[in-house]
Design a protein that fits this description.
Elements lengths: L5 H26 L7 H10 L9 H5 L3 H10 L12 H12 L3 H17 L17 E4 L2 E4 L5 E3 L7 E5 L6 E8 L3 H9 L2 E2 L9 E7 L2 E14 L7 E14 L4 E9 H16 L2 E2 L1
Length: 283
């Protein structure tokens, strides 16, 4: 008859207690596993006016069983590893898609969706406007001008109903849209006062007349030293500048579309500017 020592009994009870404790802690850790907080993406999307697909939210992903995800993926058409027509790249692509169904994957997809929508439009900052492609135009008095693809919409200052921005390594230029009550002659005279000739005298505008959408339009060209009236501490002189503008005569008012900036940038942008003017449409 074997005698069981008290030490052996105590050791057995201790091991059993440790085993139960480990299981309890493991279950508790699984139950309290933190979920990915994607609320900041919702707030960012709301500020930018973007609607995200609810299917990509972390809240839904937290309720989905990973095993159920695999079953759904299989039913939806899992590539067969033995299928000769399934390439290795397709297999990896499916695996990436399957992995995106996880909690962190869904959070990632939601962030990428928001990023793609933001990158597909003009980024705000430096005076630029946040716009979608269908919003990138200027309009007034029943007329509409579509912005060239390489330009950007800017936040217009007081007195302008629209402004566009041209980024160029040779120097950036601007295109302003204003509605004026002055006569065409007075508007041209004002532009001539903004640019002086290389010798310091008054510049003379080169004027071309054309008809656009049944409206008389004058194309104005000036180059020389630009006098920036908005500069701090007085007038700032910008040498080798140019103005290329279009004045639409509406009878009782005029629409002035003026591009100005470094002469090289303006010259490179004349073709896009003229195309925008020639393609004026009714709003």
């Amino acid at each position: 008859m074997h005698t069981i020592s008290a030490a052996a009994i105590l050791l057995s009870l201790t091991l059993a207690g440790c085993s139960d404790s480990t299981d309890t802690n493991t279950a508790g850790a699984a139950a309290s596993e933190p979920s990915a907080d994607t609320s900041y993406l919702d707030e960012l999307a709301a500020k930018q006016g973007i609607e995200l697909d609810d299917e990509g939210t972390g809240e839904q992903a937290a309720d989905i069983d990973p095993q159920m995800d695999d079953a759904v993926a299989l039913d939806a058409g899992t590539p067969d590893a033995g299928d000769s027509e399934t390439t290795e790249e397709e297999q990896r692509e499916w695996e990436r898609e399957r992995d995106s169904k996880s909690l962190l994957g869904r959070s990632r997809d939601k962030g990428l969706d928001l990023r793609d929508q933001i990158q597909g439009s003009t980024a705000p900052g430096d005076g630029l406007a946040y716009t979608l492609s269908e919003e990138e135009y200027a309009a007034s008095s029943g007329l509409r001008w579509e912005m060239p693809e390489s330009w950007r919409m800017a936040v217009p200052p007081r007195g302008r109903f629209a402004e566009m921005y041209i980024k160029n390594v040779l120097g950036n230029a601007s295109v302003s849209f204003t509605k004026e009550s002055e006569s065409t002659r007075d508007i041209v005279r004002r532009m001539q006062g903004q640019i002086i000739s290389a010798t310091g005298g008054r510049s003379r505008a080169r004027i071309t007349n054309k008809a656009v959408d049944e409206h008389d339009v004058q194309i104005i060209d000036l180059d020389g030293t630009y006098l920036d009236p908005g500069a701090k501490g007085g007038t700032k002189e910008q040498i080798f500048y140019a103005i290329h503008a279009a004045i639409f005569d509406l009878g009782d008012s005029r629409i002035v579309i003026k591009m100005w900036g470094p002469q090289d940038t303006v010259n490179q942008s004349v073709q896009l500017f003229d195309a925008m003017i020639n393609e004026t449409s009714k709003q």
